[in-house]
Write a structure and sequence with these properties.
The structure holds 2 protein chains of 2 kinds.
Chain A (H helix, E strand, L loop, with lengths): L1 H34 L8 H8 L6 E5 L5 E6 L4 E11 L4 E8 L5 E8 L13 H4 L12 E3 L8 E3 L5 H23 L1
Parallel strand pairs in A: 6-7
Antiparallel strand pairs in A: 1-2, 2-3, 3-4, 4-5
Chain B lengths: L8 H6 L15 H6 L4 H24 L9 H23 L1 H7 L10 H11 L4 H31 L1 E2 L2 E2 L14 H20 L20 H6 L2
Antiparallel strand pairs in B: 1-2
Helix pairs in contact in B: 3-4, 3-6, 3-7, 4-5, 6-7, 7-8
The chains are: A alpha+beta, B mainly alpha.
Chain lengths: 185, 228
């Protein structure tokens, strides 16, 4: 009787434990191999595209802020800035990378992470929307408007995606503020 | 619990595609079917990831079917399934980061996708490894096909595109409701009706799924009482 009870309790627990150990081992191995492919915080190839550079003959210099980097050409001359920022979208944070000329003109914006609704909020990543920010010099604050824009610091929103557009706009404003504080300090 | 009729491998595979399509006929895995089908391209990634997990877990569970004691059946299955899901998650995150972002939370949720646990319970723990792998493949591809069908309809009607390519956007105004939750249900219901019609055709006597009873049951708990 005792031996049977023993088997009824110990055997299942033992099998389950062994399964857990084997699964854990396999996961550890997979994790080890996939982590070899390191994803750096700033992808040089992405920066090249963002800044519109012909070659990858440039370097990134960190600044006092951990989110802002100076882009220097091969002669160590400052050709602009790359700034990481984020804003609160409809579903979590929207992370972006903004490229600035030395004088503060926006070269381009690249969305790094966003979980907005596919087909609606995801339209903030469309070129037609982001191009509104291009070539604009830093203003006090960009504002999202529903109708046609009347001046340079207004951005036309995407209908049905108010939270998403406000979120990415906030991210861009944050990037601009970061640029200004780097420039001054 | 002997099966009444011997089922060929080919039948095992094809049943998952239409007659026992997990999404449209067995009504399993409905959460991802509604949530990620706003775009057709998501369907392929999600479907193949789920198929990978399904095949691997069916194989392992079938191999261990005489080893795992009844009492710890469910925890053992969940551990194995979660293990495979985590593995594919790590692989996709590293090699296909764009797809990883698109699938979001639904990738880890494959673990509790009813299809995988249901097939383990209803098939893999009673059949040989090869048959289980084939069943997993059929069910997985059926899942992918269903996702693709739902996703395509929703994307074409809701955004005017298919796989990102413009189809009707210049001519017809897209009906946004189709990429919102209500639209998902509309499309799902209609496709289920079509699948039922197609399955019944030419099958006058035997229109019930091969595994009667528990196969379509999403309440896995009831299986625990049926086992001796």
């Amino acid at each position: 009787m005792n031996k049977q009870k023993f088997k009824e309790i110990v055997h299942p627990a033992l099998v389950l434990t062994i399964i857990c150990l084997v699964v854990t081992l396999l996961l550890a191995i997979t994790n080890y191999f996939t982590n070899q492919v390191v994803n750096p915080a700033l992808d040089k190839a992405e920066v090249q595209v963002l800044m519109g550079l012909e070659t990858d003959d440039f370097s990134l210099e960190s600044t006092a802020s951990e989110n802002a980097y100076v882009v220097n050409d091969s002669a160590e001359k400052n050709i602009g800035y790359v700034i990481l920022s984020s804003g609160k979208g409809y579903k979590g944070d929207i992370s972006i990378m903004t490229g600035f000329e030395d004088d503060g003109t926006i070269i381009g914006i690249m969305v790094l992470e966003s979980a907005e609704t596919p087909g609606i909020g995801s339209k903030i990543e469309d070129e037609s929307f982001l191009n509104q920010y291009k070539n604009k010099k830093s203003v006090d604050e960009f504002k999202v408007v529903k109708n046609k824009t009347t001046n340079d610091d207004e951005i036309q929103g995407i209908s049905g995606a108010t939270y998403s557009t406000n979120g990415i706009n906030e991210a861009i404003n944050n990037a601009m503020n970061e640029y200004l504080s780097i420039k001054e300090g | 619990m002997k099966d009444e009729r011997k089922v060929s491998l080919k039948e095992n595979f094809t049943k998952g595609l239409l007659k026992e399509n997990p999404v449209l006929r067995l009504v399993l895995g409905t959460c991802p079917s509604l949530a990620i089908t706003t775009m057709a391209s998501n369907a392929i990634g999600m479907g193949l990831a789920a198929t990978f997990v399904l095949v691997c877990s069916n194989l392992v569970i079938s191999l261990l079917r005489n080893v795992i004691p009844d009492k710890v059946r469910i925890p053992a299955y969940i551990t194995i399934i979660a293990g495979f899901v985590t593995m594919i998650q790590m692989i996709i995150k590293t090699y296909l980061p764009a797809l990883y972002d698109e699938l979001g939370i639904f990738l880890p949720l494959i673990t509790v996708n009813c299809i995988i646990l249901a097939r383990a319970e209803a098939f893999a723990n009673k059949n040989k490894p090869l048959a289980s792998v084939v069943d997993g493949l059929g069910m997985g591809l059926g899942f992918t096909a269903a996702l693709l069908a739902i996703g395509s309809v929703r994307e074409i009607l809701g955004s005017g595109t298919w796989f990102g390519l413009s189809i009707t956007s210049g001519i017809i105004d897209p009906m946004i409701i189709f990429i919102l939750p209500p639209g998902g249900f509309f499309v799902f219901g209609i496709l289920m009706a079509i699948a039922n019609k197609l399955s019944d055709r030419g099958d006058k006597n035997n229109s019930a799924p091969l595994e009667v009873g528990c196969a379509g049951c999403t309440n896995v708990g009831c299986n625990l009482n049926n086992k001796a």
